[in-house]
Amino acid sequence: MKSCTLKNASSDRITELARHNINSLNNIIDYNKENNIELFRISSDLIPFGSSEINKLIWWDIFKEELSKIGNKIKLSNMRVSVHPGQYTVLNSKNSDVVVKAVQDLIYHTRILDSLGLNSRHKIILHIGGAYDNRNEAVERFIENYKKLDEKIKKRLVIENDDKIYNIEEVLEIGYKLKVPVIFDNLHNKINSSRQNMSEKYWVEQCKSTWRTEDGNQKIHYSQQAENKQKGSHSDFVSINEFMSFYKMIDRNDIDIMLEVKDKNLSCIKCINCTNPNLDIYELEKEWSRYKYTILGKSHKSYLEIREQLKNKQDFSAVSFYNIVERAMKNDGETGSCANSALHVWGYFKNLATEKEKVDFFKRMDAYQANKTSIIAVKKYLKKMAEKYEQKYLLNSYYFEI
Q: What is the pLDDT of residue 154?
């Protein structure tokens, strides 16, 4: 997604950026379909300044055809999408101007989903807001302001427990009163737990009762705490053993789990593969083709382990595969290993590159091995080469990203 500063937000510039972002969304939906990702959060930045008065565009008409095509892809693939307004969309604020802007933001997010032609299974997720020194009054303000919302918003709105103020028990009370579906967030619950010392499974089951047939499957948010960071920070990747323990604990196949994690689609594909009882080894081989040069640079031992594991086409384990990947990813990679991996990648171009490109590459390699430049600089050059010579295998890999 691309945006711009307020001073550059002319109608032409917003139109240009919105067109780029909608095209990017189309590419993402195609990627999701190809990789069996059936749950996705659309960025609030889809339309720059989407809920601001400075955006005068009737964008839902301008991009009607493009949005309709994307919506049809979503529906035909049985994908479910959602949107999540940011921290400044506060419906229970004491400041009436803040509430007005919050409603405008909810209208904007509703319009995104409506423009895609999607039904009420596709949701807008919202936190309750602040406590403002009087929790009871703050809750009442949320309830009263919710009741004033347009029915189009109400049919999409769901509420979630947060990590600082409103715990899952409090959000459920509001959900029951308003007949609003409630999302359970496991990490928020660990940080800001209810006075009732109940299990995660208990709260997941309690939330289930707030979801009606027209709301679609119950949805929850899952994340893991990042090491050595402040409470509530999402981890760089989902540790598969920890996730599988949670997945087995909830023991449900009628629930949608949204991952909140820094590496996004990488962890998503990992969890999809590990929870698929009918997984074909082709899916792991496809993943290996994406990871292999990154792993080679991180740990030659792990590289050989995975190659050996994938030789057995009948008896294989996705969890075991990703455990090796995770172990390898914790290494920074020694200079020799990273150089070896880079040379393997260079092999795709060595018979295509010009003499100048060969000289440029090996200059960078010499500088890297002499500790005068980073492996990132080498990778950037290799990515440029992969794009020039259209090496799709490399461009579809994770080598240039992680």
A: 98
